Amino acid sequence: MVTPSRITLARKRRGLTLAELSQHAGVSLQSLSNYETGRTSPRPPTVRKIAAALDFPEAFFSGAEVNELPSDGISWRARTKTPPRVLDSARAAGTLAAQLYDWIAERFLLPEPDLPSLGKPDPETAAGMVRTRWDLGQAPAPNMVHLLEAHGVRVFSLPPDSLEVDAFAVWRSGVPFVFLNTLKTVERSRFDAAHELGHLVMHASGERPCIGPEAERQANDFASAFLMPAASVLGHMPAGARVDQILSGKRIWKVSAMALTYRMHDLNLLTNWQYRSTCAELSARGYRTDEPQGLRKREASQILTKAFQGLRTKDIRPHNVADQLGITPGELKNMLFGLTMTSIDGGREHSRSHRIDGVLSLVRG
After folding, report:
1. In the structure, what pLDDT confidence band is assigned to residue 185 with cuts at 50, 70 and 90?
2. Which residue from 13, 8, 2, 10 is spatially nearest to 62, judged by alpha carbons?
3. How far apart are CA 159 and CA 327, in angstroms?
4. Which residues of 191-206 are buried (b: 16+ CB within 10 A; e: fewer)?
5. I need a surface site. Which of 101, 113, 156, 361 has the fewest CB within 10 A?
6. Crossing angle of helices 272-284 and 243-253, rounded to 10°
């Protein structure tokens, strides 16, 4: 029996309209509409056509009902400039990642969410409150993905076809999720993670709007203050710093040169003229869109790494997980932030990822 919501989810994941799917699958538009609304159910040959057109295993369409991630709580950064089908595809990818999280949560004890709801404090104060709660003091933020995961945030990567989406965050049944674009520079990805953290703590209570330019400004200010605490920046950076001093200083907080320049201007360490001239020089050197000589080691999920290593001890491989979720191994790989599996030694899979610290345990049973 086909589950209607799964046809819709797979179609959105591929960024197709009903008319486009009709053309690709060779199935009438009216029939597809009926399948998605549940008025009728496709026969097996038609399911095969739909599955082939969407590049999803046939088994996916007979799984349990799927609830898409709530769209109301997502603050897209460039909502008006990004095609709706791209946003729908990214949200569908997030929904599939949430299915993976549910699968992992049935087998592992994961860190409980530890995020305050700060609907009223200004971003600078809110960032300081989260830092205090997480015992970070004024020290530079460590690996942002590990930090979020240690406090109960589920972090997944966005697929390459969601390049137009920087990142997004959402609460789902009391669990916070962050989805990151891993093709940006390491420094900008860290800022994205802090930016989404800002949305999760400041915009979940409904006390202030979670969408719009003002919400984005608040999340940016939160990220800036979280990654570069005022006392730390004032203690390390001289007023009127030269570009070479900024390029050296950005390594302290592992941020982009532009982000540190903005923060220094915000803290009155750069005058308006110095800020503009610094930005112009950094742009001329390529720092507007890139981070020359920047960090090379991408921050990645330790939860997913450890989970898949734990599964391997039980002879459960990534392709087994993909089979159980009814998705392709390629779709699964897109979610595994920084975790690369290769088939070597006669098909045995090895992780080429990152060092793991003990933060989750297998559920006994």
Report:
1. very high
2. 2
3. 14
4. bbbbbbbbbbbbbbee
5. 361
6. 80
